[in-house]
Amino acid sequence: MMTRVQMVDQIFVIAKHSLLAHVPAMWQPLCSAVLSVVPVMIVFPLLFAITTILERKGLARQQNRFGPNRVGPCGILQPIADGVKSLTKEDIVPRSADQMVHLLAPLLLVTAAFLGYAVLPIGRNMVITDMNGGVLFFFAISSLVELAVFMAGWSSRSKYSLFGAMRAIAQMISYEVPLVLAAIVVIMAAGTLSTVSIVNLQASYTGIFPHWFVFTPWGFTGFALFMIAATAESNRSPFDLPEGESEIIAGYYIEYSGFKFALFFLGEYLGMMATSAMAITLFLGGWSAPFSFLTWIPSYVWFFAKLVALICGFIWIRGTLPRLRMDQLMNFSWKFILPMTLLNIIAAGVWRFMPGGPLRWLVCSALIAGPFIVLGRATSWQGKGVAVRKYRYAE
Amino acid sequence: MTITFLILAAVTIAGMAAAMGLRNLIHCVLALTLGFVGLAALYLQLNAQFVGFTQILVYIGGVAILAVFAIMTTQSAEPVAHPGSAAYWITGSAVAAGVFAVLAWAICGSGTHARALPAQIDVPAQQIGFALMRSYVLPLEIMGLLLTVALIGAVVVATPVRKGEL
Fold it and tell me: Do B68 and A150 touch (CB under 8 A)?
């Protein structure tokens, strides 16, 4: 018999099963799928709406202004107003645009963004499908986003959107490699590609502390590298060159208006949340509680708490760091992040085959920290006689 | 032959046919991508999850994007005026027929189609990993070496030659 804590934890699973019991057996697989998918498709767009207001308010406070404060108390109804606005706006398609591709691009983007949620466990026993190759599925699907971005940029027949698309693709290709390589350490440690098994492995405790992968030298490094690559993958500041408002206005979706524009926004935020959720699944123990005495709080609460915390981190970084230059972006990816992920994989291998104890910690930390310092010095511009840049034609 | 197989096969063939028939090069690549998606879905339908996802990751995330990138950086994607001469068609068809004949001959000769398939094939990724790292480790390493050579070659080709270096 279930205790009350377990009941609260499993309330959505129980609700689904009791609803399914009323359905004829023939329709059960279909109904089960619908009952799993529809809540995800409602909850995450709602979270997107909350994120937009959180972001606008948070950025405003960081920049010493108020942010939206007219719609509803403290402006919290702003997302609804924005939604109504984008729904009622005229949908303008440029005359020279490739009509079909122009229409398909936002749809493909949102579809790809939603598909990633199929393998993310948002609570104990709460996942749409537990695939054998779940992590691989996630990364495969997120590569569709690149195609959608290209379609949007190319079909608009505008210089700015084409520049944006080129920048976006170059950036996404460069950062997809470290993103996957940073995730590989977890797959090595867990010995499985299934997201559910990875979370289950982390949901046990020594004393009061959990076995999250982030609490190992390679896990911590992997998490940091994964989050940097995820920021670049979701085109967020400081990696927001593809849509750099001051240079190419809005990049690949400049020629979109009305609801299609809103779809791009939705897709972008869904992608960001999905990658964050993947980082939580891989490194931060998914739905498991941070201390063994806090396990009475339902698993899904922990998952969403971690997700909101990571989103706040994204907003904080966006408000703090300036945009990179294109060459800095590429150098950072290929000369620093990529070697670090490879070294991290070696460290994870060493960790796997060394006996547990302080020595293992020391060796693995040294394996990562030493090259980190050397690489950081080598790729930094300091002490290389870099002078103020001379502009040939401006003087 | 189930209805799902027929639909997926139709999508794949339609995508590949469109990739050859369309005028606009970018449209061709997008149609090709549709064909790749169809192929991946066919693998998934055969319960080969790993192969299916790798197909998406490599062919859509890598090959299609690279093709698009190459087209955009080298030439205009505007439709080409001349549709290609008859000689083009004949040689193309001959090569395609030849390749198809060789492949069909190899498959028919191998006896795979005569073997009865087990009802449920579900190979976990772990097993594929073991196979790659144990029995097929040499081919894997050779592939890795080949790709490294290609990568270094690309860098060498792309590096601008400064005056006095050659």
Answer: yes
Task: Print the domain residue range for B7.
Answer: 1-76
Residue B38 sits in a domain of what CATH number?
Answer: 1.20.120.1200
Strand-pair partners of A209: A206
Does B19 fall in a domain? yes
Query: What are the backbone angles phi and psi of residue A188, rounded to the nearest 5°?
Result: -60, -45
- Judge if B69 and B139 occupy the same domain: no
Q: Which of B50, B62, B65 sits opposite A136 (nearest CB)?
A: B50
Residue B71 lies inside a defined structural domain of this protein: yes
Count the domains in chain B: 2
B6 and B66, same domain (yes or no): yes
- Omega of the bond prior to A238 within 30 degrees of 0, cis? yes
Q: From the list A132, A144, A154, which residue is nearest B49 (CB)?
A: A132
Q: Of B51, B76, B101, which closes a domain? A: B76
Domain-wise residue ranges, chain A: 4-379
| Contact status, residue A213 vs residue A219, Cβ threshold 8 Å | yes
Chain A residues within 8 A of B65 when measuring between CB atoms: 143, 146-147, 150, 169, 173
C-alpha distances (whole Å) from A69 to each of A53, A279, A315, B141 are: 10, 33, 19, 60
- pLDDT tens series, chain A, 395 aa: 577 777 777 878 888 888 888 888 888 888 888 888 888 888 898 999 889 888 888 888 888 888 888 887 888 888 888 888 888 888 888 888 788 888 888 999 999 989 889 888 888 888 888 888 888 889 888 888 888 888 888 888 888 888 888 888 888 888 888 999 999 999 888 888 888 888 888 888 887 888 888 888 888 999 999 999 999 888 887 887 777 677 776 677 878 888 888 888 888 899 899 999 999 999 988 888 888 788 788 888 888 999 999 999 999 998 888 888 787 888 888 888 899 999 999 998 888 888 877 888 888 888 888 888 888 887 776 656 666 667 666 65
Q: Pick the residue of B30, B74, B120 with the most A CBs within 10 A to test the interface with A by mutation.
A: B30
Tokens of A34: 């619908």
Q: Which two tokens stand for residue B118?
A: 């087990």
Residues 6+ apart with CB under 8 A from B34: B11, B14, B15, B18
In a domain, B72, yes or no: yes
pTM recorded for the entire structure:
0.85
Distance from CA of A252 to the nearest CA of B (A): 15
